[in-house]
Backbone:
């Protein structure tokens, strides 16, 4: 099973995402993704139920914690390929 995370990117804060950076946490299955997110203490509001590749949006702090818990860094293009574009 693989838990993967892409690089941190700058983003424009919005009402839904009031942060200036973002990255994406993905996994081989939704169950594994939710379990890992729970271990990270990530809000369920950060979950994006994309039909091809569900993911969690993360901040830089959570990204660092995910890497410490064993997430593997991948390129955003790998995630986009799984999703057919975000």
Residues:
């Amino acid at each position: 099973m693989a838990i993967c995370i892409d690089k941190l990117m700058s983003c424009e804060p919005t009402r839904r995402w009031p942060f200036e950076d973002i990255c994406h946490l993905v996994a081989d299955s939704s169950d594994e993704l939710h379990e890992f997110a729970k271990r990270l203490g990530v809000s369920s509001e950060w979950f994006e139920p994309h039909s091809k590749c569900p993911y969690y949006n993360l901040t830089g702090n959570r990204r660092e914690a995910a890497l410490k818990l064993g997430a593997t860094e991948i390129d955003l293009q790998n995630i986009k390929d799984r999703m057919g574009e975000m």
Summary: The chain is about 35% helix and 25% strand.
